Amino acid sequence: MAKPKAVVLLSGGLDSSTVLAIAKDKGFDCLTMSFDYGQRQRAELSASEKLSHSFGAIDHRVVKLDTGLFQHSALTDLSLDVPDYDEEDADKIPVTYVPARNTVFLSMALAVAESIGADDIFFGANIIDYSGYPDCRPEYIDAFEKMANLATKSAVEGRKVSIHAPLVNLDKSEIIKQGLALGVDYSQTVSCYQADDQGRACGYCDSCTFRKKGFADLGVEDPTRYQ
Amino acid sequence: MAKPKAVVLLSGGLDSSTVLAIAKDKGFDCLTMSFDYGQRQRAELSASEKLSHSFGAIDHRVVKLDTGLFQHSALTDLSLDVPDYDEEDADKIPVTYVPARNTVFLSMALAVAESIGADDIFFGANIIDYSGYPDCRPEYIDAFEKMANLATKSAVEGRKVSIHAPLVNLDKSEIIKQGLALGVDYSQTVSCYQADDQGRACGYCDSCTFRKKGFADLGVEDPTRYQ
Q1: What ipTM describes this predicted complex?
Q2: Residue B43: its pLDDT value, please?
Q3: Which of A84, A103, A126, A153 is the most exposed place for a label (fewest CB within 10 A)?
Q4: Chain A residues with CB inside 8 Å of B115's CB?
Q5: Higher confidence at residue A172 or residue A128?
Q6: Quick one: closest CA in A to B100, which residue?
Q7: Cα–Cα distance between B185 and B54 in angstroms, integer?
Q8: Which H/E stretch holds residue B145?
Q9: For A141, how many CA atoms within 13 A lie in the half-sphere containing its CB?
Q10: Are the Cβ atoms of A111 and B100 closer than 8 angstroms?
Q11: What is the model's pTM?
């Protein structure tokens, strides 16, 4: 019997790579999607492609988005600096927030899922070790799923689409533990907001800070390639 | 005082052009958005640009989407024919359905709205004279609005985004009546699913059929340019 298909949003970072491993482990044939939206960390695009291949995805799609779509974010506007992690700012949504990004990504995943006959979409949202982005919260994910189940012809025909965020309540060390058990090679993943062209991390941004702490908390060696 | 800004989804058809006129009439500075997603009716793109300009929009954005994103629709797949309207099929979702299209368009409108500080998004969904598309129904629009109000930094900061679908319960003749009162020149709008390069309509597809009937029901001359 053919395996069910799933669409997996894959940024090439630690979380989404772990999610891809989880989706594969659950028995899905995975189509991975990455987005080229003018982000400064270009290395994540090649990391995604390699990770998709190494996990045997059935297809990898890179969607190019108009760079003007997402404005006023340090991830897309090179005139804004990516700040170092600062615990005092931990309750604020940082300048790396990209307007409605996950909504745009999930919407496109929904379009592709319906096109290929997949009822499952996976993404790596997480609310424990994260930067307070609103579009990672469980209530947001539930609302997106509700909307998605009214949006499509598949839904009208009685098929239910599920938005899976298997990491949403895990801390970074728990995520890494799962990923290692499933064979994720974290040296190939790129989480840093300002990785260089070779995918080497800065070690100081929010994303690097959470990631570093995850390996330390788990007590395993951090395989991240730093600049 | 500066006017509030709104994002208006503008396909260049009868409905969205009327919505632009309504949004302007309500006192908004309108940014219009069109999408180049490989649709067969290319004339709607130039119609949108002209209509945006003639209604004094503050900006017009054409978002180019990967043509592979939307598959298996007669609007994007030139190997599928656009069917003539057939009353017997009126309760089925037709082959012109594009997977998750309005969800993708509204998501991008949400990203742009947040980027420019707009809390209002207008689109021309309608459930009276329409083709049964699921992503035009009021329950879908409500679900999208709920999701949008959990998705963004603006929402977390207490700003509410509204998805306006002012035509949703109007029939075509009522829409045309409103548009004429607000100065819409319907000869410049392109509704046909297979308009030619000059924007001239086929007269036989679902979209042409609903539009024709609207002018006839209202008892005004149909200014549509036919092939």
Answers
A1: 0.88
A2: 84
A3: A84
A4: 69-72, 99
A5: A172
A6: A111
A7: 10
A8: helix B138-151
A9: 19
A10: yes
A11: 0.89
